[in-house]
Specification:
The protein is α/β, with parallel strands linked by helices. The chain is about 35% helix and about 15% strand. The protein is built from 10 helices and 9 strands. It has helices at about 40-45, 60-70, 90-105, 125-135, 150-160, 185-190, 215-220, 225-235, 250-255, 265-275, and strands spanning about 15, 25, 50-55, 80-85, 115, 145, 165-170, 195, 240. It has a 7-stranded parallel beta sheet with strand order 3-4-5-6-7-8-9, covered by helices on one side. α2 (about 60-70) links the parallel β3 (about 50-55) and β4 (about 80-85). It is globular and about 50 Å long. Residues about 1-10 have low confidence and may be disordered. Bound molecules: NADP nicotinamide-adenine-dinucleotide phosphate. NADP nicotinamide-adenine-dinucleotide phosphate binds near residues 31 and 146.
Length: about 290
């Protein structure tokens, strides 16, 4: 494939609505597991990676504390902070208590989105009811889920009364594209966002590997790293966001560069050919 040396396109939106009618959120964010260095997170925020994903589970609250340090002094409205409740805390009273603990560690008045981390034994309707009350109480601006297949998404959405699911956060990368045929079509019909976790793959994509030759060629044409191309590819759909985690500053900067990469139709076709989707045989894969 021949790829011309295109300059980074300025027309690509760095932020997009977080689900239909949702707030504008940076399409590339930052993960926080393992516990992040606040300085790296802050550098990412300065570069536009203002969408931060954390959870009470990460480091038993230490990731949330690191986020608090990273965002100190930054205008609250410029950030989109997401946290998650563990399934064992996802009962009617537990959700509110877990949210209070997260807010305290984050030193915040409210979360932009609060997710059920994965489905456990508590009925989804009970968790969704508790999340709705948190929205009504002003503790969270929106609610969502993680690691839910379409049938669970239907059940969760069907049990909501006054609010809507803002997102499903799922494992999605170049080796695991099956959400494109399952959760993404559901999200498109319903109007919520899909957030890609582990977007750089497991193991992290190695640009020296021959199977990334096309990615590397496209990266050279845009003067970014192959990782940035992968992030741009994953977030090409208006509903998809990605939350890479980077401890190293050069990785943070490389990921932020993806905000400005717009892939051409030929480049997308070439990545599709090199990294085809596969058929999913079981449930939604998780980490
Ligand atoms: P990831 O972000 O795809 O990969 C992290 C790895 O990629 C680290 O080793 C990092 O290295 C490396 N990396 C980052 N940017 C890079 C770049 N530009 N070039 C080369 N290497 C780069 O995977 P993840 O950490 O599993 O997932 C990201 C976030 O998703 C987590 O932090 C967490 O917030 C969330 N998550 C959610 C769930 C869930 O169940 N909802 C599950 C897993 C993860 P360095 O650290 O050395 O920079």
């Amino acid at each position: 494939m021949r790829i011309s040396n295109l300059p980074a396109c300025q027309s690509v939106p760095e932020s997009k609505p977080f689900g239909r009618g949702g707030p504008l959120v940076s399409r590339i964010g930052q993960g926080t597991w393992p516990v992040p260095d606040p300085a790296a997170l802050r550098r990412g925020i300065e570069l536009g990676l203002t969408h931060i994903d954390t959870a009470e589970m990460y480091g038993a609250g230490r990731s949330e504390e690191a986020v608090a340090e990273a965002i100190r002094g930054i205008a609250r409205e410029s950030l989109f902070i997401v946290s998650k409740v563990l399934p064992q805390n996802a009962h009617a009273k537990g959700v509110a208590l877990a949210c209070e603990r997260s807010l305290r560690r984050l030193k915040l008045e409210y979360l932009d989105c609060y997710l059920l981390h994965w489905r456990g034994t508590v009925p989804l309707s009970e968790t969704m009811g508790a999340l709705e009350r948190l929205v009504d109480d002003g503790k969270i601006r929106s609610l969502g889920v993680s690691n839910l297949d379409p049938w669970d998404l239907r059940e969760a959405a069907g049990s909501l009364h006054g609010h809507r699911l803002a997102c499903d956060q799922v494992l999605y990368n170049l080796d695991e594209r099956t959400p494109e045929d399952h959760e993404l079509p559901w999200a498109r019909d319903y109007g919520c966002a899909i957030v890609a976790y582990t977007p750089l793959g497991q193991p992290v994509l190695d640009p020296r590997d021959k199977k990334f030759a096309v990615l590397a060629e496209i990266a050279r044409a845009h003067d970014v790293t192959p990782h940035a191309v992968a992030l741009s590819f994953l977030t090409r759909d208006p509903l998809v966001f990605a939350i890479p985690k980077a401890a190293r500053l050069e990785h943070v900067e490389a990921n932020a560069a993806a905000l400005r990469v717009e892939l051409s139709a030929d480049e997308i076709a070439a990545i599709n050919a090199e990294h085809p989707n596969r058929e999913r045989t079981g449930p939604l894969p998780t980490n």
